[in-house]
């Protein structure tokens, strides 16, 4: 992959990821503070754990891509997830921080996007490819959280198309 191809790929995927922000914020906001401890199975994360992970992991991924190294610090992750008091804090953090981080990612020079990074010894690929991996990770956890919403007594927002719960546009 040439540097220019890597930059173009990263920019394309960043644009797609930016397009996911609205749906991500809507799903996060649909979690209610009084039901945030719900989990469908003892092995599952709670809705709160999923929401805080989704919001903070997107930022961690972008920061790691920019830095050129993936390092997991469990204590730092717990601190990041622990900064929130309520669901609104999570949504506001994501609305503010995600666009700032994507802007910084887009500012990276083309030659950096083609550099190969190591993801915890599991996979090595160009930095640009990790932008796609991060977007997929975000969509995966948003989907998990969206699957909890009806059980929480919340409505599932429109994501890629109409939801049975969301108000449908009136046809003319």
List the helices and strands and how they pair.
Blueprint: H1 3-30, H2 47-67, H3 74-82, H4 87-106, H5 110-113, E1 116-119, E2 123-126, H6 127-148
Antiparallel strand pairs: 1-2
Verbal overview:
The longest helix has 28 residues, at about 5-30. A hairpin with a 3-residue loop joins strand 1 (about 115-120) and strand 2. The model has no long low-confidence stretch (mean pLDDT about 95). The chain has helices at about 5-30, 45-65, 75-80, 85-105, 110-115, 125-150; strands at about 115-120, 125. Strands 1-2 form a two-stranded antiparallel sheet. It has a single domain (about 5-150), classed as dinb family like domain (Four Helix Bundle (Hemerythrin (Met), subunit A), Up-down Bundle). The chain is mainly alpha-helical. It is about 60% helix and about 5% strand.
Mean pLDDT: 94
Structural class: mainly alpha
CATH topology: Four Helix Bundle (Hemerythrin (Met), subunit A)
CATH homologous superfamily assignment: dinb family like domain
Classified by CATH, the class is Mainly Alpha
- What is the number of helices? 6
**Low-pLDDT segments, ≥5 res:** none
Placed side by side, the strands forming the largest sheet appear as: 1-2
The best one-word shape is: globular
What is shown here, in short?
The chain is 60% helix and 5% strand.
Name its key features:
two-stranded antiparallel sheet, single chain, mainly alpha, 172 residues, globular, Four Helix Bundle (Hemerythrin (Met), subunit A), 6 helices
């Amino acid at each position: 992959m040439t540097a220019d191809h890597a930059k173009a790929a990263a920019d394309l995927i960043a644009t797609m990821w930016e397009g996911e922000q609205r749906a991500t914020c809507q799903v996060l906001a649909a979690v209610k503070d009084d039901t945030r401890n719900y989990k469908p199975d003892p092995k599952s994360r709670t809705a709160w754990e999923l929401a805080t992970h989704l919001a903070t992991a997107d930022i961690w991924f972008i920061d790691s891509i920019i830095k050129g190294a993936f390092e997991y610090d469990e204590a730092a992750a717990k601190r990041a997830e622990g900064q929130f008091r309520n669901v609104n804090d999570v949504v506001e953090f994501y609305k503010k921080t995600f666009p700032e981080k994507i802007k910084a990612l887009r500012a990276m020079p083309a030659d950096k996007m083609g550099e190969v990074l190591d993801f915890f010894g599991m996979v090595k690929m160009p930095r640009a490819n990790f932008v796609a991996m991060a977007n997929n990770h975000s969509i995966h956890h948003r989907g998990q959280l969206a699957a909890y919403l009806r059980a929480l007594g919340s409505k599932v927002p429109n994501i890629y198309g109409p939801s049975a719960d969301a108000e449908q546009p009136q046809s003319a």
